[in-house]
Amino acid sequence: MDNQNEFEKSGNNNNKVTNSFVEPDIQEIEEEAKPSNKKLTYFNFALIVVIFVGLFVYMVTVDGIDNIVRVLQEVDYRWVLGGVGCLLLVWLCESFCLHLPIKSMYPNQRYSNSFKVSMIGQLFNNVTPFSSGGQPMQAYELTKTGKRVSDSLSATAIKFIVTQSALVITTLVVVCFEFDFFAGLMQDFVWLAVVGFAINILAIIVVIIAGIKKRAITMITTPVIRFLGKIHLFKHPDHTIEKLDKSIDNFGNQFRYMKSQKKMVLMMFISATIQSLAYYSITYMVYRAFGNSGISFWQIIPVQAFLLLIMTFIPTPGSGLGAEGGFLLLFGSIFKHGTINMSILFWRMYTFYLPIIVGAFFLIPSRKKQVGK
Fold first, then answer.
1. What are phi and psi of 286, to 5 degrees?
2. C-alpha count within 13 angstroms, C-beta hemisphere, residue 56
């Protein structure tokens, strides 16, 4: 309770740094949240349009207009609506995971504002390579409603830690129960899946170590950054080391705060688990919408999780091209002949294009006074 009161006090005093937080420069956040290179932003949007048009042209070329029309006529739109429901559940759970830590720091925070911030994050995650624009933009949006930069970054960092942990744990549990099917479908890619999941687990372990033992991390990162500076991959290695040192200090405070808020973290974990299952359900809804059967929901999950893992390493906005190619490679053998390309289009509408469209809607300025101050 004392920690919560301290955070509440810090939220009411924007000019005073409390709780040992090093207040990041708001200009740095603005620089990360608002890319200075507008040409790059326009290029990303253009690339998204090109990918969409390219997918459609590919479908017409391979399947033909007649087959596309026939497939659309045979679609079971009850499952399509089910996919929409799953997507809404993903958004609601993700917003809830962001809302809880903000609410603990700022009791007047409203869920509607957290939902808005979360959807703006969805937009920028999908239009920037490696989903790099989401968290800075969310932090920037939160500062508009009176949140301290350090508190905003804390909330997004706590959310990332919990949701990533829930994602990995949920996936590993399902893989254990459906390993035979997963291994049979993946065949030569099983080793890649094992490596990918191991990397995610290692990342979580590193995060935990960073929260507990700062020196264990800096002993590794400092010489590496200095070496990269000597070979001119970093222009200002000392400045980079200083920023990293401050970030680790902030993260240590965030980690200790999480340890003191076990109930909040548990609620976030449950919400994140539901979010993961809802996201995986979208693929199953698409599978059933096109008249497929024989593969269970629980068998879809590990394959979809592996696809999501592949997508994180693709350096295009929204993992464009790689996501579509991965879906075709992994699910092509279990979808009915002639339906896989249309299935890819529907799946991408759910997981890529709709988040961009809806997220852009929340960027429209409102005449009303913003809530959550």
1. -65, -40
2. 7
Could you give the residue ranges of the DSSP H alpha helices within 144-294? 149-177, 179-186, 190-212, 214-230, 237-260, 262-289
Question: Does residue 157 contact residue 211 with C-beta atoms inside 8 Å?
Answer: no
b/e per residue, 7-20, with b = 16+ CB within 10 A? Answer: beebbeeeeeeebe
Residue with the two structure tokens 């970054």: 153
Cβ proximity of 249 and 22 under 8 Å:
yes
335, 47, 361, 110: CA torsion to nearest 10? 80
Looking at residue 37, its pLDDT comes to 52
Q: Which residues contact 12 (CB under 8 A, 6 or more apart)?
A: none
52: Cβ contacts below 8 Å, ≥ 6 apart: 348, 353
Task: Report which DSSP code applies to 371.
Answer: S
pLDDT at 232: 73
pLDDT given for residue 295 in this prediction: 92
Q: Tell me what pLDDT residue 35 has.
A: 44
**Nearest of 33, 224, 244, 51 to residue 123 by alpha carbon:** 33
Domains of the chain, residue spans: 2-361
Residue 269 has pLDDT above 90, yes or no: yes
Contact 138, 156 (CB under 8 A): yes
Q: Kindly report whether the global pTM for this prediction surpasses the value 0.85.
A: no
Q: What is the token pair recorded at 353? A: 């294009």
- Which residues have C-beta within 8 Å of that of residue 367, sequence separation ≥ 6? none
Q: Is the distance from CB of 100 to CB of 114 less than 8 angstroms?
A: no
Nearest to 285 by CA among 106, 39, 87: 87
What does the block give as tokens for 134? 């989401």
Cα separation, 209 vs 220, whole angstroms? 12
Cβ-based neighbours of 336, under 8 Å, separated by 6 or more:
290, 291, 292
